[in-house]
Amino acid sequence: MQILGLINELIGLPEVASEHGSMVDHMLEMVHWLVAVLLIGWSAYFFYCLYRFRQKKNPKASYGGVKGHASTHVEMGVVAIEAILLLGFAFPLWAVRTTEFPTGADVVKVRAVGEQFKWTMHYPGPDGVFGITKPELISGDNPLGRDPEDPNGKDDFLYTELVLAKDKECIVTVSSKDVIHNLALHPMRMAQDAIPGSIADMWFKPIKTGRWETVCGQLCGAGHSGMVGYMEVKSQEEFDAWYKENTPSMNQDKPLEDSAAKEKPNS
Ligand SMILES: [Cu+2]
C-alpha cells in the first residue's frame, strides 16, 4: 500500500527490524490518515463557522442553535472508524504481544534491569534458567543482587547491551531497581515500562541484523536523556559464539561483574 505508507514516510518512522513491526506501522498509517483527515476537516469547519456566523451578518446570537443533524452523523462516523481501529487492529495486535508468548528451548531470554541511568542485561546462560536475585545482595560488585549460591545462576552472565539473534523469538523481562523507566526498542516497535517491584515480559522476533540505540521512554530523573543503551541483533552463528564467549565456566568461580565490565561499547 504505497499511498497508505506515504504518511509514515513523511513522519519519518525508524526502520522496522521485527516480524510484527510492519503490522504496527500499518495501524499507525491508518491512525495518521484519520488524524490528518480530522485535522483538515475540523480546521475547514472552524473557518467556515467563523465566516458563516460572523457578527456582521448575525448581530444577534441564536439561542436555538444548530437544527440539522449533519454534525452528529460526522461524529458517529469518526467514532465508528476509531472503534474499527481499536477493536479491529490495536486490540488483536496487543493480544498477540501479551498472551501468545513463545515457548521452547530456542527462545532467547533476557532480563533487562533499569536503574538511574543505565540498563543491565542478565542472560540465563546455556541452562536457560535465571539464577535467583535478591535485593539485599545488591552491591557495587553485584549490581543485580545475584545469589552466588544458586546453582542455576552459575552460568548466568551480565552484559551492558541487549544482544539478540536474528529470526529467533526473544522474551525480554523488564524490571527496575529504582524509579519507573521504559525500555523502548523503536526498530522492534516494542516498549515496556520498567516498574520497581514488578516484572513485565515483552516478546518479539527480530528479523534484521543491525545495531541500534535503545531509549528510556519514561522521564526518570535528571540523567534521563543520557539513558541511551544499545541493542544488537546478530546472526545465529555470531550470537552463539558471543553467548559462549560470555558464559562463565561452570567449574570456576568467576566474579559476577566480569562479563558486564568487559567489552564496553565505544560507539
Ligand atoms: Cu530511565
- Which percent band covers the strand fraction? 15-25%
SSE succession = HHHEEEEEEEEEEHH
Round the mean pLDDT to the nearest integer and report it. Answer: 89
- Find the count of extended strands (DSSP E, 2+ residues): 10
Q: What is the overall number of helices?
A: 5
Task: Specify the biggest β-sheet.
Answer: 5 strands, mixed
End-to-end Cα distance: 36 Å
How many separate domains? Answer: 2
CATH structural fold name of the largest domain: Immunoglobulin-like
* CATH homologous superfamily classification of the largest domain: Cupredoxins -  blue copper proteins
Overall description:
There is one protein chain. The protein is of the alpha+beta class. The protein has two domains: 2-60 and 67-99, no CATH class; 108-261, Cupredoxins -  blue copper proteins (Immunoglobulin-like, Sandwich). Helix content is 33%, strand content 21%. It has helices spanning 2-11, 21-52, 70-99, 236-246, 258-261; strands spanning 108-115, 118-123, 157-159, 162-165, 170-176, 181-185, 190-194, 200-204, 210-216, 229-234. The strands form two sheets. The chain has a five-stranded mixed β-sheet. The protein has a five-stranded mixed β-sheet with strand order 4-10-9-6-7. Residues 114, 117, 181, 216, 218, 220, 224, 227 line the site of copper (II) ion (CU). Residues 114, 117, 181, 216, 218, 220, 224, 227 line the site of copper (II) ion.
